[in-house]
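Task: fold both queries, return tokens.
Query 1:
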Amino acid sequence: MADKPEPLYFRVRDNGATVFRVDTENRQRRIEMDQIAVANTNNGQIKPHGDTPPTPGEMAEIEAWMQARRAVLDDRAVDDIFRAVDYLNLTTHWAQTKATDDQLEQFTDRLLMAMHDLRMVLVRKKSDRMMKDE
């Protein structure tokens, strides 16, 4: 474990993070966290918060964190799609080998509609890409 914590702490939220300045240089030697900003990864905004706004160096660190966070979320989104493909394959195997008629009746219509919707979007997007390449 490091002797001294990082100077900024990012409390992750759905759309970014609440940013705190970490202070260990006080008489009680406690870790104090002062909220200095709210970072929104969806729209790129950084809103200062509290009595002491972020310094230019802290703003640069927040922007770097936001860029890295967006990359992590993008990677996760792609990984989720690959997991969905695996799950569809596992579902197919289960439906073919183990599912009862009653079990299949519970979800077949909803799954077929979701798959039809996905197929329409994928075909349209592929067609758009092919037309753009020509």
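Query 1 returned. Query 2:
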Amino acid sequence: MISQTKVIVRYAETDKMGIVHHSVYPIWYEAARTEAIKKIGISYSNLEKNGIMTPLVELNCKYIMPAEYEDVLTINVDISKLTPARIVFNYEIYKPGIEKPINIGSTTHAWVGKDLKPINLKKQYPKIYEKVEGLAEI
């Protein structure tokens, strides 16, 4: 399942050249990922209340074309891989009038407990795993 999130580029997100600074894209990835998770009835704050943390273990980000101040961008996110120990999200960012994505990326997150030790989400939290599985295209 692909989840879509819209963002409007703010002036503070641009650099002196008037284009979005490279550091902003991972923040947008997080916003899109958070919205995707909410759509299946889970929030990151509820995961954390249940003792489930999702630290970032890998980030990939490819810049294809620039985004500029006041662009209305669409961020598509889906899950490309889900295991009891990890989850991988893929992102594509689109700009109006351009058919191909202007940015693509992925983030890999581990399922860990409050002690930051890996957990088997499927065994320890089967209902949550089932919900996340519903979002994943595997």
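Both queries returned. Flag for query 2: The chain has a mean pLDDT of 94.
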